[in-house]
From TrEMBL:
PANTHER family: PTHR43054, SCYLLO-INOSITOL 2-DEHYDROGENASE (NADP(+)) IOLU. Residues 3-119 form the Gfo/Idh/MocA-like oxidoreductase N-terminal domain. This is Oxidoreductase. Residues 157-223 form the GFO/IDH/MocA-like oxidoreductase domain. InterPro entries: Gfo/Idh/MocA-like_OxRdtase_N (IPR000683), GFO_IDH_MocA-like_dom (IPR055170), NAD(P)-bd_dom_sf (IPR036291). The lineage of its organism: Bacteria, Bacillati, Bacillota, Bacilli, Lactobacillales.
Amino acid sequence: MISLGIIGTNWITEQFVRATDITKTFALTHVYSRTEAKAESFIEDLEKENIKISTDLDAFFKEDFDTVYIASPNALHFSQAQKALENGKNVIVEKPSTSTIQEFTILEKLAHEKGLYLFEAARHIHEPIFKKIEEVVEKHRDDLSGATFSYMKYSSRYDAYQAGKNPNVFTTKFSGGALYDLGVYTVYDAVVLFGQPEKVDYDAEFLDSGVDGSGALTLKYSNFDVNIIIGKTKNSYMSSEVYFGRDTLLLDNGGDINHLDWADDNKNITDIPTTKSENPMDSEAREFARIMTENDHASYDKLLQYARTVNRILEQARTSAGIVFDADEEK
């Protein structure tokens, strides 16, 4: 197995480590946390032993492990990934991997120069259910006439924000907001299924902090539009859809996809059989490890192109809406 260091001791890092245990792909050996107590509690919850703890990031990257998984606040991704690559570590970084396309370009160039891997962890595109969506879209591509993707989920941190606190996910300092949290899933949906759009426009609903609480994103392609609805300040139970003229592919969600149906012109709805892992990060852990072990550069280049396109669209979208991150001023 590939030795793994992680940055962050939150629920998503725990989920990723458990996925690597199930798939027997990566072996956790090192943990970085700002406090030793948090790291110890995290390791204890995972029932792991002999894990090296670091509270100093420079010291952490000098340790002997192969790959780092980064799940810190968005604005920290770039500097941490850059430092990892400079120290010879392969990088798996949660989406979005950077705050700006300039940052992404720097990381991509550095990874290439060092002969290392840089993965953006968009876990849902690796799941079997998404592969089934790709099959359906490809089969009916000649009739493709657009899509609507919806992902709106009331944030567990929004109450704190309304109470006058300053959660990272709702600040420009940490590159927060709906687009860069939930929207990235739906942009991945569009890019993987339809490619790069010709035009991007985002109409955002702003919070006082300067980030978007929700919004409507339009991706214009040559023959159709993709409409995206996202939000962190409200809940929506709207399904997502891909249109093929008279027929429609129904997704129960634009980000966390659990069920697929096919609806015909007569309103007959047919279930599309597929599978869903109990741990949604199983498939990406398996695929990243496979690419690294087999040196499958064709698959790697494809994922890198997706990530590059998605990060460019995210920046174009927030620029069109007038969303400015602190990271923009650091260019």
